[in-house]
Amino acid sequence: MSMIDRRALAAGLGLGLAGAGSSARAYPREYRTTDPQIPIVAEVRPNVVPPNQTIETSRDPYRRMTAPVLLNRQGPYYFVVDTGANQSVVCQEIATALALAPGPILPLHGVADVEDTPTVMVPDVKIGSTVDKDVLMPVLPRAAIGADGILGLDRLRNQRLKLDFQHHRLDIQRSHFAVLPPFTSSVSGRQRSGQLTIVDADLAGIRVSAFLDSGAERTIGNPALLELAVLRNPTNKFYEVPVISVTGKTLPGKVAVLPVLRLGSVRLVDIAITFADLHVFQIWGLRGPAVLVGMDALSVFDSVTLDFGRAEVWFELAPR
Q1: Closest among 213, 240, 204 to 306, alpha carbons compared
Q2: Which listed residue, of 104, 105, 132, 176, carries a Cα 20 to 30 Å from 265's Cα?
Q3: 119-127 vs 130-140, strand pairing mode
């Protein structure tokens, strides 16, 4: 039996782009989708772009994108950019080295459960040219995070975040109108618990609520999606794997390769989906089919832009 967690999962399963959708044949009506061929077009809007904050990034060993962060004018420390985390986290080793003042014990919601977690008060946190004062951060061991810390949505709210995989760069701007670049698909979303939900998405013909989680190594579906996926693909092979949270708790999971994940006009084919009853699905009240889209899917694009203010996501592919 293989082991997986937010940082690793069995590799070697195919992922690519397709132009055709999947059939909704023999499926409950409420989960059918017409899956039309939607052309990717350029959309022109008033261009009132403020100056960029550009942060050079690197890939951590688990393929997630990391960004340099200064704590108390020291560092840089490399934090995983995690659009699936509401709260930024610092590792215990750095908190100890900087002698950060302890804060209260607070509950920290992970993918698997909620645990009481120690916190520290960071007098100043600098990300790019932005400095936040007196930031309370939960503390976890570096081995659990796989990096120096986690950069969550509490530091990115009302911002426009561009994950530039081609140039290993993170661009942070205030939310704004902009011109849609060539070879880019724009997908509408809605805000839910700080995250962006893509409203026009389906997996193998099953309509889903899709969240973009740049802190997850792999794409994960909830039990409601698993139940329908088994009905839709009865001959498909599902392999049992344990899923491990950053808090250390293990959940049972299953992994399978499904034909098509569609996000607006973008289609990913032969994508490996892990299914598990994650705590975050319960927190967000997602009882219907839902999926967290991880780095295995996001990193096939040249860039992915999340505009939290305008509830919009851009997927960019180079002409090649």
Answers
A1: 213
A2: 176
A3: antiparallel
What would the CATH number be for the domain defined by 53-164?
2.40.70.10
Domain topology for 4-47+182-316: Cathepsin D, subunit A; domain 1 (2.40.70)
The SS3 assignment for 3 reads coil
- Long-range contacts of range 127-134, CB-CB < 8 Å, 24 or more positions apart? 127/53, 127/55, 127/67, 127/69, 127/70, 127/151, 127/155, 127/172, 128/53, 128/54, 128/55, 128/172, 129/53, 130/53, 130/172
**All residues at 6 or more sequence positions from 235 whose CB lies less than 8 Å from its CB, including other chains:** none
Q: Of the candidates 132, 128, 210, which has an alpha carbon nearest to the alpha carbon of residue 173? A: 128
Place of tokens 């140039």: 167
Tally of residues, the chain: 320
Sequential pLDDT tens for the chain (320 residues): 333 333 332 222 222 223 222 322 232 323 333 333 433 332 222 233 334 455 455 555 556 788 899 999 999 999 988 887 878 999 999 999 999 999 999 887 766 667 789 999 999 999 888 889 999 999 999 988 889 999 888 887 778 889 888 888 888 888 888 888 888 888 888 876 667 778 788 888 889 988 888 888 888 999 999 999 888 878 888 888 887 766 667 788 888 888 888 888 888 888 888 999 888 787 777 788 999 898 888 888 889 999 888 888 999 987 65
Dist CA 209 CA 285 (whole Å): 11
Max CA-CA distance within the chain? 61
Instruction: Give the number of other Cβ atoms within 10 Å of residue 241's Cβ.
Output: 22
Question: 20: exposed, middle or buried (C-beta count within 10 Å: 0-12, 13-18, 19+)?
Answer: exposed
The domains spanning 4-47+182-316 and 53-164 adopt the same CATH topology: yes
**Domain segments of the chain: what residues?**
4-47+182-316, 53-164
